[in-house]
Amino acid sequence: MPVLVTGAAGFLGRHVVAALRHRGVDVVGLVRHPSTLACPTVVADLRDARAVAAAMTEVRPSTVLHLAWYTHPGTFWHAEENLEALALTCQLAQAATKAGCTRFVGAGTVAEYRWDTPRLAEDSPREPATLYGWTKKAAYEVLSAFLAPHSAFAWMRYGWMFGPGEPSGKLVSSLGAGLLAGRDVPCSTGSVSRDYLYVEDVADATAAVTLSPVVGGINVGSGVGTRVAHLFDQIEQAVGRGRVLRGALPDDHPPELVLDVGRLSNEVGWTPRWSLEAGIQRTIDVLR
Amino acid sequence: MPVLVTGAAGFLGRHVVAALRHRGVDVVGLVRHPSTLACPTVVADLRDARAVAAAMTEVRPSTVLHLAWYTHPGTFWHAEENLEALALTCQLAQAATKAGCTRFVGAGTVAEYRWDTPRLAEDSPREPATLYGWTKKAAYEVLSAFLAPHSAFAWMRYGWMFGPGEPSGKLVSSLGAGLLAGRDVPCSTGSVSRDYLYVEDVADATAAVTLSPVVGGINVGSGVGTRVAHLFDQIEQAVGRGRVLRGALPDDHPPELVLDVGRLSNEVGWTPRWSLEAGIQRTIDVLR
């Protein structure tokens, strides 16, 4: 029985479809509009409960991988669309269990944690600073309770990702595009460290978690802090023109955030394959 | 500008409407079906976003008091309808802020707390054991984040309540009805203590919190533990026939749960007026 993927036409979703197919999985993408994807699709707006139920009946997925959410760069942190995304996530889980789905895997975020310690493990305190973080955390908690009698449930908490196809407005693509246009681009000093992972690795880890029996919250990241200044260097080097105007914008807080990926490496057996440098190079090549 | 009350035709809601009117407040009930209430009403199903928006535009409430939820006795603890209630609560808060509402007051529950300590204060750990508790907790958390820039937000965590009009299937009404019919009614030993408050007091406290400037989570209860065996005695005495078959059913867990009502008494200045005995007597009189 197939894995049904929501958000399959999104930035991460397209890479996840490829990663699942690479592993020989029967994948069906649930998409809002007819889309060209590397897998069969069913068309349903998650707002349309009847269409979602019909899609579930048609596909009869054994596993649902739910990536869809409101992710508009810049605005997603505090947008009220997060409330609707939470509601639609609950509805989807209900429709999935009604259709006999026995594994539900969802997309959480590092923003569910309280950012007062640099190393964030699955059992670290969860106290978000944004509506995005609160609604993701709420989705995790209410689905844990709702799905317990019905289906296995895993919730991946992603760190920072970049790569080909990322929405304009995100760091690597917007900086890369600016430099490629020969512009000097105002940035922070880049002094902070974050857990960055190349999207093809994120997608492969997502496929591995989805196909594993792991349940509960699980961090998906590199487990390593990358200084943003190092990203700047790599992007400048890959592009070969334009300049990063370091210090023109304020730095983020806090100084360091890294995911503890012990569960991902020990229980799922997954480790990254792409170096940061190779990932940046590939992203810039595609942008070019 | 009026206070708009959802769930106004419910068990607690009808008493709250009376309590608000008793305080001279301009109250409008938001009801699913045309209902005979002691206040003006607007009819809108909370599932119908357009009807809710129209109701908000018509009423222009300064304050929304949101009591509606899925509350079917027995099944509400684990029913999936809790997921929809969470979604509709988020939608209502969005509609309220769009209409210029500056205070939103919601109905939470003692079931949001972790029941591993007998005295539950607002800062006690929140770790529910039921889907009802998880969805109420999620509503509190996501609305706290969503409403912060728009409107004052208070969230009342209710203990146990009883009184005239309570749904059949709840302890006092079902036991009272059984005894009034002259039956012997199988019950637990009644060894556990819970924070019971007569519904007219709960309603008056709700009115007081609604009209106060208090924000955040606030416990609404008696602050006193009542042994369920004492309730049995009082009900038997008020009815005067039939018998409570003590020990025929298992006791609940944990042995004792009492709300710390320091905020309610110190910051809102509210204390109970009804004795438990008088409340039971009144409930039985109305049942009779």
Question: How would you sum up this structure, described in words?
Answer:
- The structure is a homodimer of 288-residue chains.
- Chain A has two domains: 184 residues, Rossmann fold (3-Layer(aba) Sandwich); 78 residues, Alpha-Beta Complex (UDP-galactose 4-epimerase, domain 1).
- The first copy, chain A, has nine helices and 15 strands.
- In chain A, the strands form five sheets. Chain A has a seven-stranded parallel sheet, sandwiched between helices. In chain A, strands 6-15 form a two-stranded parallel sheet. Chain A has a two-stranded parallel ribbon with strand order 8-11.
- In chain A, α1 packs across α6, α3 runs parallel beside α4 and α7 crosses α9.
- The radius of gyration of chain A is 19 Å and the shape is globular.
- Chains A and B meet through α3 and α4 of A and α3 and α4 of B.
